[in-house]
């Protein structure tokens, strides 16, 4: 049974039951028309991100793979993978995909990054 506006979630067990056990989810919670959010959904002030100290990021890294044997290219890939988690490449996709799959799979044991050739995303290892 859903709580009424006059009887919002007084304890966390009722909230967990409604949202999780009954399968209503957060969507069901929002459809109740509650006047205030349950405290479990409010992040404490000390854990909130300070919006005044945000440093703007540059654009998504774009790496030219035309000279993929250049050590700077490998460094750019690993930097992009560790800082961004992904990157965009320019060059022949199939050649680059095979190169990334082959060369970085071998270096994964050395703490480099591994690359899924079909998605072209790096996952940092080590």
TrEMBL record:
GO terms for molecular function: metal ion binding. SUPFAM superfamilies: Clavaminate synthase-like. It holds the Pfam family DIOX_N. Residues 60-94 form the Non-haem dioxygenase N-terminal domain. Keywords: Iron, Metal-binding. This is Non-haem dioxygenase N-terminal domain-containing protein. It comes from Gossypium barbadense.
């Amino acid at each position: 049974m859903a709580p009424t506006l006059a009887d919002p979630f007084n304890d966390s067990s009722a909230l967990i039951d409604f949202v999780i056990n009954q399968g209503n989810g957060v969507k069901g919670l929002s459809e109740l028309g509650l006047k205030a959010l349950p405290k479990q959904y409010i992040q404490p002030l000390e854990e909130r991100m300070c919006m005044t100290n945000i440093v703007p990021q540059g654009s998504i890294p774009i790496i030219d793979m035309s000279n993929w044997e250049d050590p700077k290219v490998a460094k750019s890939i690993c930097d992009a993978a560790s800082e961004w988690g992904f990157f965009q490449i320019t060059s022949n996709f199939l050649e680059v995909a095979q190169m990334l799959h082959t060369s970085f799979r071998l270096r994964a044991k050395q703490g480099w990054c591994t690359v899924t050739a079909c998605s072209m995303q790096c996952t940092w290892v080590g």
